[in-house]
Amino acid sequence: MLHLPSNEMPAQQDKQAMSVEFERDLASPTKPNRWSQANQAYLLAHLDRVRQTLARHGEQAVVDAAHTPEAWVVLPQMAHDQPAALDILCTCFGLSPFERDLLLLCAGVELDSTFAPLCATAQGNAQRDYPTFALALAVLPEAHWSAITPDAPLRHWQLLQVEPSRSLTRSPLRIDERVLHYLTGIAHLDDQLAGLVRPVTQPAVLAPSHAALAAEIAATWQATGDSRALPVVQLCGPERESKQAIAAAACEQLGLTLYLMSVAAIPSAPAELDRLLRLWQREAVLSNRVLLLDCDEHDRSDAGREAALARLVEADNRGLLLIASRERRGPWQRPLLSLDVNKPTGAEQRALWDAILDDTVDGGAAALNGQVERLVGQFDLNLPVIVAAYRGAQGRLASHSNGLPTTPQLLGDTLWEVCRSQARPQLDNLAQHLDALATWDDLILPERERIILREIAMHVRQRSRVYENWGFAGKGKRGLGISALFAGASGTGKTMAAEVLAQELRLDLYRIDLSAVVSKYIGETEKNLRRVFDAAEVSGAILLFDEADALFGKRSDVKDSHDRYANIEVSYLLQRMEAYRGLAILTSNLKDALDTAFLRRIRFIVHFPFPDAEQRAAIWQQIFPAATPVAGLDMHKLARLNVAGGNIRNIALHAAFLAADANEPVGMAHLLAAARREYAKLERPVSEAEIRAWV
How far is 432 from 544, CA to CA, in rounded Å? Predict the structure, then answer.
C-alpha cells in the first residue's frame, strides 16, 4: 500500500502495510467491535502510563493495587492481531517515544478528567491546568528539544496546536481534533477539508476499456518501489464522469479511497497552499485517501490558477495524485503518466444494453428488432447513463401504461426519447432549442433539393452501420462527420428544412447564433464552440449554425494576429464538424462569400432558391391552418407577391390578426393591408402588377 509520505515520514513497506491492514479492519463488518475494544484498552493503558508519570512528577502518584511500581514503564501490548491507531500514527509520522508521550499527554487532557489537575500540580500553578512544552520536557522521559521545532512531526503535521502566547515553551498545547478521533478509532474526514473535497465512489458498472486503464494505474503505483518516483496520473479528455470512475476503480483495487477537489479550491497564496497540502497529506496517511484534482472546467489561460496547480503538484512530490483535465498539462518535474479517456466503445455500450434487456425483457434485446443498434449508433452514452436511461424509460412506461402490457416497440420508442433527453440540460444553456413541427408536406422546394435533404437523413440513419459495421471508420476518422450547408436568401426555408430533418430523424434541433459565439478575445470562440459540440455529442442532436457568414468569409490574408486567429476559428469549427457524430448544418445568405476551401470540407450543399410563382402559390395554399376561417382567397393572385416563404408567413399571420380583430374571416382585403405592412418593413413598394384586381 502506498501513502503520501514527506521529508519526515518513513516510507518502509512494513509501515505502509500496517496502515493498510488497519484500514481494512475498520471496514470489516465483523471486526470493528473487537478491534475497537482492543484499541481503546491499548490507548487507555498508554494514557495511564503517562498519567502515572505526570503524577510521580507532582509527587502525588497513587499506585493502583493492580500495578507494581514497574508496571507503568512497561509498554502495553495490543490485544488484537491488527495494530492500534497509536502505533500506526507513530510509525507513519516517525514519532519518537517522547513525541508519542507528548501527544498522549495532550490527548489525556481531552479524554481523562484527572489529567488537568495533575498538569496544574506538576507546574505549581492551579491556573495552568494544560500541557506545555516546558511541562513535557520536565516530566516525560527521553525528552529532546528538537521535538518542538516547526519542522518536527508534531508541528509540521499539525498533530498538536500551539495556542498563541508570549513563550513557546509555556504556551498551551492542544491535540488536533482529527488526530484525537483517530486515536480513539473513529475515522472521519478532517473538518478543515470537508468543504474542499468530496468522496468519489466506484460505479457498479465499468466499461472493459476503462477497467483496463484502472488496472494500468494500479499496476504502475504498485510497481513503483520508491515513493519519491510515484508518477502523477493525468486522465485526459472530455469524459468527466468516466475519468472519475476510472480513478475510483484504481484506488479500489489498492484499498484506497478517492476524493475529488476542484482546481479552483487550490489557494494561490503559498502559505495557504502549504497548509492545505499538509492537511491533505496527513489525512491521506491516516485514512489511505487519494486526491483527484478536477481541472476540467479550468481555463489554462488563467496564469495564476495554473501556477497554483503547478506548485501543488511539485510540492506534493511524495504521494498519490491524479489530475482530470481536458488537455494534457505540464511539464512538471514529477514523473507523469498521461492516459486518454474516451467514451465506452460502441461494442461496450451495445453489450450493456443487451445485458440489461436480456435480464428484463422477454426475448431480450432481439425482441426490440434492431432498436439497440439504433440507440448505440445515435447516442454516445456512458454506462451509468445507460443504466439510468433504462430506469427512466421503465418509470415513464409505468406512469403511462394504465396497466396495459408494454410492447417491445413501445419500449424501444421510449428508450429513444429518454436517451434523446440526456443532453438537453447541457445544451439548453448553450443554444436555442427549436420545436421541430414542420413535415415534408410543409416544405416547398424543387425536387432536386428535396432529394438531397432525404439523402442527408439517410446518412444520419445509416452512419453507424456504414462506419462501424462495414468498417469505414477503420480507414480513418477524418471526414466522418455529416455536415451540410443550406444556402439561400432569408425566408427561403432553411430553418424549416432543418426542422423537417429533425422531425424525420426524431432528434433535437438546436440553433446556435454564430454572431454570439464568435468572440473578439483570442481563444474564446473555440472554447464556446467546444462546449456546444461536447454537450451535443451525447445525443447527436442536429446543430444549426445560423448566419455562417459571421465566420465563414473568404479566407483572409494574414496581415496581423487577428487575421491569423480568425482563420484558426474557422478551421476549428470545420474540424469539430468533421468529427461530430451528429448532423451539423450551416446556413448562409451568401454562398459565394464562402471560401471554396471550406466548401470542400462540407458533405452536402443545399440551395434554397427564391420561390417562383408556382411555388409561391403552393406556399399560400397551405399557409393557413385548417381552423382558420377564410373567404374569397385567390391563391394565384396572392402568388404574384414577389416575396419568399418567410414573408408569406408574416403576411398571412398579420392578416389573421386583422381579421380576428374585425370579427371576420381572412379575406383579400386583410391580406392586402398585411402585404403593404410587410413591404414597408422590407423598404420596398408594392407594385400595381402584384396587387391588381385583389379587391
Answer: 10
List of residues 6+ apart from 688 with CB closer than 8 A = none
192-340 and 440-608 in the same fold: yes
Residue 611 DSSP one-character state: P
Beta-strand pair 542-546/509-513: parallel
Q: What is the pLDDT of residues 475-509, one digit of tens each?
A: 766 778 899 999 999 899 999 999 999 999 999 99
Give the burial class of 64: count Cβ atoms within 10 A of its Cβ; 0-12 exposed, 13-18 middle, 19 or more buried. exposed
The reported pTM is 0.78
Residue whose C-alpha is closest to residue 185's, from 57, 40, 315, 318: 40
Cβ(385)–Cβ(242) below 8 Å: no
Find out whether 543 and 580 touch, Cβ atoms under 8 Å.
Answer: yes
Beta bridge partners of 606: 486
Return d(Cα 306, Cα 298) in angstroms, integer.
Answer: 9
Q: Report which of 322, 317, 309 is spatially closest to residue 333, judged by C-alpha positions.
A: 317
> Residue 257's beta-bridge partner residues?
289
Q: Poorest-confidence range of 227-231, 469-473, 628-632?
A: 227-231
Distance in angstroms (rounded) separating the CA atoms of residues 230 and 220: 8
Q: What is the pLDDT of residues 624-639, one digit of tens each?
A: 999 999 999 999 999 9
Q: Where are the domains of the chain?
A: 31-188, 192-340, 346-422, 440-608, 613-691
Type of residue at 437? L
* Residue reference for cell 510521580: 56
Task: Tell me the residue ranges of DSSP E strands in 206-353.
Answer: 232-236, 257-262, 289-294, 321-325, 336-340
- C-alpha cell recorded at residue 603: 458533405
The pLDDT of 292-296, averaged and rounded, is 91
Q: Does residue 331 have a cis bond before it (omega within 30 degrees)?
A: yes
Helix (H, G, I), strand (E, B) or coil at 457: helix
pLDDT digits (tens, 9 = 90+) for 249-288: 999 999 999 999 999 888 888 888 888 888 998 988 888 8
Q: Which of 245, 253, 223, 218 is nearest to 233 (CA)?
A: 218
Burial of 408 (0-12, 13-18, 19+ CB in 10 A): middle
**What's the pLDDT tens digit per position in 107-147?**
999 999 999 999 999 998 999 999 999 999 999 999 999 99
Q: Spell out the CATH class of 440-608.
A: alpha beta
Within 10 angstroms of residue 417's Cβ, the number of other Cβ atoms is: 14
- CB burial class (10 A; 0-12, 13-18, 19+) of residue 127? exposed
Q: For the structural domain made of 192-340, what CATH number should be given?
A: 3.40.50
- Check residue 136 and give its pLDDT: 94
Options 1.10.260.40, 1.25.40.10, 1.10.8.60, 3.60.110.10; which CATH number does 613-691 get?
A: 1.10.8.60
Of 78, 104, 102, the C-alpha closest to 21 is 78
SS3 293: strand
